[in-house]
Amino acid sequence: MRRARTLRPIWIVSLVGVLLVTMAIGVRYHLDLTAAEERLTGRSRVIDTPQGRLEYAEQGTGRPLLMIHGTGGGFDQGLLFSGDLHERGFRVIAPSRFGYLRSAPDPVAPELQADAFAMLLDELGVQDAVVVGGSAGANFAAAFALRHPERCRALVLLVPASNLNDRDPVEMTEWEKALVARLAGSDFLYWALLRLAPDQVIKTLLATDPTLVGGAARERRERVSDIAEGMLPISRRTEGMLADGRLAGSPTEIDYSSIRVPTLIISAKDDLFGTAGTGRQLSRIIPNSRLVLYETGGHVWVGREEAVSQEIARFSRSVERSN
After folding, report:
1. Structural domains present in the chain
2. pTM of the shown model
3. Residue 152 above 90 pLDDT?
């Protein structure tokens, strides 16, 4: 009897401790998700197109540059991917692809999304633009160059995640695929993974060696963190992510060999999505193209941020001079 009385306070203390921890986790999750929503609020606009509602944001002034984001993104990721180009004389226009954030309806084919992007340029009074596609966004940028070559002054395929040989560029183990499928629909699960295993997010979703990030300068680590954190709320990007997965799982229908606009392809040899090999192949397929390959940087080009911006700016200006 005495032993039971002794154990009861311990059990009560343990239960109270569990409840307090649970409450603290819930509060932190709520605060972080609220902050993620606030990061999006008031930064973008929406137009209606025949393909659906299209969201976009702008930054900077000068030569128009259409920045098309990758998987897990939206206009916010597009602005992140554009780096400091808005300070280098570019007017960065960053749409959210269909299925991401406020762009709706469900995702449509890259060709039809390219038509929506052309309507966006019309809405903004832009005749033509440098078009940059990052990661999965490279497919949509290429589709734009094919369907609207007169509107595409130059094309940049940045770490292009394109399925050229019936091989999914975002190749994952079965465990990783199951994890991503669960994460894509749950803000809480993705948030928890970010807090408990950030290196797993960097390796699996950002296709970058976590040790490369850990050894980088603080501002570069913060940029990677911003990209990962920027996927919250992931539930508002689910449809787009699932559509990107379907596209990546089948050989592309985009005829890259028919692209005639000047094209710059950029990747890193240690990109875990294998975009260096894709870049080499694209440089052989696309007639008027140039390939830049970095030894390191991963899929989010860690440590190459300034170099990438310089390459894009230099390439864009060289096209201006040649015209």
Report:
1. 45-169+238-322 (3.40.50.1820)
2. 0.91
3. yes
